[in-house]
Amino acid sequence: MLSFIILSVSFATSQADSRSYLLRISHETFDDYSCALLQSNGAFHLEFARGYDIHVFEGAASRENVVRIQAILDRPELSSLLQQQIEEPIVRGRTEKLQLTIYRRDHWQDLFFQSVESEKPVEESVNQLVRWLDELHKLPHKEFSEDEGKQNCLPPRKIALTKRDPNPPPPAPFNRNNWGLKAAMKIPPLLPPAPTASAEFKPLLRVYSVTVKSGDARRFCALIADTGRYRFEDSRQKTGKPLKTEISGGMLKPEEIGQLRMILANPAIVKIHHHEPSGTAEVPMRGDMLNLYIARPAGDQNIILSSSFGRQFGSFYGGDADVTVARELTKFLKDHIETGTLDKSNRNDCTEIP
After folding, report:
1. Average pLDDT, the chain
2. Rounded to 5 degrees, what are φ and ψ at 203?
3. pLDDT recorded at residue 210
4. Coil, helix or strand for 278?
5. How many CB atoms neighbour CB 80 within 10 A?
6. DSSP letter assigned to residue 92
7. Whole-angstrom distance, CA of residue 118 vs CA of residue 288
8. Are strands 301-306 and 321-322 parallel, antiparallel or unpaired?
C-alpha cells in the first residue's frame, strides 16, 4: 500500500500567493490513496493510487463546481472545527485517513481524521468532499506520468508545506499519527504555561494508558504537578459503541502527594529502563499498556509497561516491564483522582493543567 506524508501548512510567500489555493485533500483507505490540490480558479492537481499503480491528472473544474466546494468548506460545523476537537476512538472500524487543509482567508485550517468514527460530527460535509475527490478524474484533464507530475498534491513554490511533528502541541493542529494503539503510548509535549498563569508548574508524573479487552476498551491520561494539582482524562468504549470521555481536574492533599512519591520511589519501578521497539514493531490488540513519565532528580524516566511483557513474539512489542509493577500506582489514581468534574470540550490530552 502506498504510504503518504502528513503535512501541515505554513506561509512562505505573500498572502496573495496563498489566496490562489482553496483546498488540499488527501484520502487513504485499505485499498487506495488519493489527493488533490484545488485552486480558487478551478485548476486542480489529482493523484490516486491503488497498490503501485499511480495516476497523475491536472485539469479544470467549472465555476459552479468550485462554488459548491466552497459552500461545503464554509459550513459552520467544518469551519469552526479545531484539530484537538477531533476525538479518535480507542478501537477503530474501517481503515480510513482523511486530511483537509483549507484556506481561511488569513490562515490555513488543517484537519486530520484517522477513522470513520472521528468524522461523525462532520460526516455529511466530509462525505461530500470525498465523493468530489473520487469523481474529480471525470472532469476534463490531462494525464502525466508519475515522474512528470507526482508531487503529493503540494503547490510548487507557492506555499511551504513541511513535515508535521508527530505530536505538535495545541492549538496548532494535533496529529496523533497512524501507529494505532502504539500512538497512545507516545506522550505529547507539555504546553508552555499561559501568560496569565501565576507560576509554571513542574510535572511530577504523567501517565498514558490503553486497555483493550474483548468487549470494551479504555484510554486514560493523568498529569500531576509537584504541587498536587492534577489533570485526568478518561475515555471508554464498548464494542460497536461511541467513545465516552470524562475530564477532571483538582488538587491532591500534601499527604496524598507524599504517598504518591513513595509509590514512585519503589525500586522495582526506578530500575526499569526504556528500549525503543523496532520501527515496524506492532502492539498487541488486547491487554494493557502504560506509559509513565516520572520526574527524577537524576533525570526524567519514561518507560512503557505492558501485560504482554515477556510473552511477545515475532514483531510484537512488549514494553519495558510487566504492567503489574505499577499496580499500586493505578490503585492510587483510582482512589484519589476525581472523575468527570470538567466539561468535555476542555480536553487537551493531559498537556497542561488548567
Report:
1. 80
2. -70, 135
3. 87
4. coil
5. 9
6. -
7. 23
8. parallel
Q: Are strands 108-115 and 95-103 parallel, antiparallel or unpaired?
A: antiparallel
CB contact at 8 A, 51 and 198: no
Among candidates 302, 327, 283, which has minimal Cα distance to 184? 283
Cα–Cα distance measured from residue 4 to residue 1, given in angstroms and rounded to the nearest whole number: 10
Highest mean pLDDT among 111-120, 132-141, 283-292, 333-342: 132-141
Q: Per the structure block, which three cell numbers stand in for 354?
A: 488548567
CB 133 within 8 A of CB 45: no
CB 304 within 8 A of CB 318: no
**Contact criterion met (CB below 8 Å) for 119 and 100:** no
97 membership: H or E segment, kind and range:
strand 95-103
What pLDDT does residue 200 have?
62
Question: CA–CA separation, 343 vs 21, rounded Å?
Answer: 37
Q: What is the 3-state secondary structure of 186-240? A: CCCCCCCCCCCCCCCCCEEEEEEEEEECCCEEEEEEEEEECCCEEEEEEEEEECC
State the average pLDDT over residues 183-194: 59
Cell numbers that stand for 229 in this block: 494539582
| Amino acid identity, position 253 | K
89-117 b/e (C-beta count within 10 Å ≥ 16 → b): bbbbeeebbbbbbbbeeeebbbbbbbbbb
> What residue ranges define each of the domains in the chain, with the CATH number in brackets?
7-163 (3.30.1560), 180-346 (3.30.1560)
Helix axis angle, 327-336 to 254-264, nearest 10° = 160
CB atoms within 10 A of CB 302: 13
Number of H helices, E strands in the chain: 8, 16
Q: What is the rounded distance in angstroms from the CA atom of residue 175 to the CA atom of residue 68?
A: 28
C-alpha grid cell, residue 134: 473520487
Measured CA to CA in angstroms, residue 184 lies from 13, 88, 159, 164, 187 at distances of 36, 11, 31, 17, 7
